Amino acid sequence: MPLHEEKVARHLVKALVSNSAHQQLLYQIRQRAATFFPVIEPILAQHNVPLDFKYLPLVESALRGYAVSPSGAAGYWQFMPATARELGLRVGGGHDERRDLVKSTEAACRYLNYLYSRLGSWTLAAAAYNNGLGALLGNIRRQQQRDYYYLRLSAETGKYLYRILAFKELFSNHHSYKGLISDRVLASLSRPVSPESDAAGEDILLPERFVDEAVEGAVRSGSRESGVVEEPADIPLPNAADVFRGGIKARLAQAAGLQRGQVWVFHLTRDGMTDGKAVEAGDILYATVEDVDSKTGKVFLRADRLYSAGEKQTYSLALAAVDASTGRIGIKLTDVDQIKAGWILTWKVL
């Protein structure tokens, strides 16, 4: 996911906020995941489908076999009757295999592999799962664009992958979103869950409903009537490095000039992880002025080296300074005009 792009970052923020707004429902979904993921994961692996697709039925049905959409899609993976039959599932005559977790997951894997074979991208396969292959190919052809994150799609499909990835982040990486998600929700996400003892007594749940209710009043969403995803509202990202993995903060210790090649020195302000390496407060970044762009009014700072104060060693590490309000690479020259010792910048892995 290209989180350096402001539009992409804001869409993910919206999904994280909306998916975490209903604390009790989120806990119940985690319980169901503890029950059903051990069944789903080996089936995905057997069919060579990425394991991240286990989060797709959370968006489709909240992992409820008896979930039914207004259009007639049903089951964990929300298949329409005709699609289910084409994939080898029995539907009708008092028997509906869309509600069989194993058989419906195997059918979903067959369908996802077919979509991947046609599109050559798992990201686009997920989008086609939601929007239909024909509709997605039509958008690709008209827009001459094959990257999901830059395609203009229907409002539902445009946020579909973000909702899937938001569940993944909330379930597996929620500690990285302190400040974006309330302490109460973070505590709930840290609360141990045990598999549901009785998953048979399921009720109907329309997943889109709770997501839309959650996002209302928190962030403004794109218009469904428009048929395309609108530019997201100006949601501030004051701590982009803290929100998205791989980011760190460092305080200016020694400034140089604004000419290309000038070296500035920064000290990390706290412990963290970046590019798979543990870094500590007090470690030193040696940053170079890579470019000064008068057209965009930005200066681009890049750090290629980090000195570990604890280990007394220098490591190669490619980082770029980003605007903390947007998460995009480059610092406004108007901000640079007020440089002084103690100035803190946000840094992202390149």
What attributes does this structure have?
350 residues, alpha+beta, six-stranded antiparallel barrel, 12 helices, 38% helix
The major beta sheet can be summarized as:
6 strands, antiparallel, barrel
Q: List the total number of helices.
A: 12
Q: Report the order of strands and helices.
A: HHHHEEHHHHHHHEEEEEEEEEHE
- Total strands: 12
Structural class by secondary-structure content: alpha+beta
Average pLDDT taken over every residue: 78
Task: Explain what you see.
With 350 residues, the protein is of the alpha+beta class. It has 12 helices and 12 strands. The strands form 3 sheets. The protein has a 6-stranded antiparallel beta barrel with strand order 3-4-7-8-9-12. A hairpin with a 2-residue loop joins strand 1 and strand 2. The longest helix has 24 residues, at 23-46. The chain starts with 5 loop residues before the first helix and ends with a strand.
Q: Which SSEs are present, and which pair or pack?
A:
Elements: H1 6-19, H2 23-46, H3 56-61, H4 81-86, E1 91-92, E2 95-96, H5 101-119, H6 122-131, H7 133-143, H8 155-172, H9 183-190, H10 207-215, H11 240-243, E3 248-254, E4 263-268, E5 272-274, E6 277-279, E7 284-293, E8 298-308, E9 313-323, E10 328-329, E11 331-332, H12 333-336, E12 344-349
